[in-house]
Amino acid sequence: MARETDRDGRAPARRGFLGALGLAAVAGPAAAIEAEGGTGGLPPQKESEAEKRKPRYRETDHVRAFYRTNRY
Amino acid sequence: MARLKFLCDSDRCIECNACVTACKNEHEVPWGINRRRVVTLNDGRPGERSISMACMHCTDAPCAAVCPVSCFYGTADALVLHDKDLCIGCGYCFYACPFGAPQYPRIGNFGGRGKMDKCTYCAGGPQQDNTPVEYLQYGSNRIAEGKLPLCAEMCSTKALLAGDGDIIASIYRERVQQRGYGSGAWGWRTAYKQELSA
User: Which residues form the 4Fe-4S ferredoxin-type domain (chain B) (predicted)?
Assistant: First the structure.
């Protein structure tokens, strides 16, 4: 049986197109997932493991005013 | 150390949705995502009741237990936060959460949902406090500014309380004693393994 190759022994160009189509089907959604919730091009400034678990709450005057007014 | 909690006094909630709007505006939450929402039970019938709900920052959080990439972490004041750089959008946390808190930015082909988004208690995420990248990924960080979640601060009837769990519990008890009735702290048994009786 004759093989589907051109005279130089290379596969037809349409196979390249199909390969690119398959790659786009896989890589497209993956790239979209990266874009969602990504840093939008901004440089990441990650906290260390200890920093991100530190207590964040502070009982400031602002917070005390919230508690006081909620007792009315 | 303070244990931060939410408490919705459902006897005061008038379903105005100001908490929902304030949250979306403060954090520029994308279209289709609500970190907080108001649920009305027995709508239009006697005994109608509205409850403002979001992530309750549970003790022993089920979302963290099921996450296959361990993107959740707890802070010293018991907030349950997550790292969007690790999230793969699998959706397990949504199925595990008793409050339906985790949200996803889209439903795409091949099951792609995007990175999970949920209430951060206005405490940002694992990026440095109040940096542009933290705002972009997690929204405003009011806790770092010495404030409380905007949903609670905006509540016109003061139905939604946030802050130190012991203090907001005492505020709720005082209210119940003064008015003579109270339907309990909704969600506290599920989230914090704690009943709140006046």
Answer: 4-34, 78-107
- Residue in the structure block whose two tokens are 């019938």: B45
Among B4, B120, B128, the strongest candidate for a mutation testing the A interface, having the largest count of A CBs within 10 A, is B128
Quote the domain boundaries for residue A64: 13-37+48-70
Domains of chain B: 4-190 (3.30.70.20)
Give tens-digit pLDDT for B18-53: 999 999 999 999 888 999 999 999 999 998 999 999
CA angle B44, B50, B54 (to 5 degrees): 145
Q: For residues B61 and B109, give the distance between their C-alpha atoms in angstroms, rounded to a whole number.
A: 30
Residue A33 within any structural domain of the chain: yes
Predicted TM-score of the model (pTM)? 0.84
Question: Predicted confidence band at B109 (pLDDT cuts at 50, 70, 90)?
Answer: confident
- Give ∠ CA B17-B18-B23 in degrees, rounded to 5: 105
Any B CB within 8 A of A24 CB: no
**Token digits of residue B48:** 């109608």
ipTM above 0.95, yes or no: no
Burial category of A3 from C-beta neighbours within 10 Å (exposed 0-12, middle 13-18, buried 19 and up): exposed
* Side-chain half-sphere CA neighbours of A70 within 13 A: 29
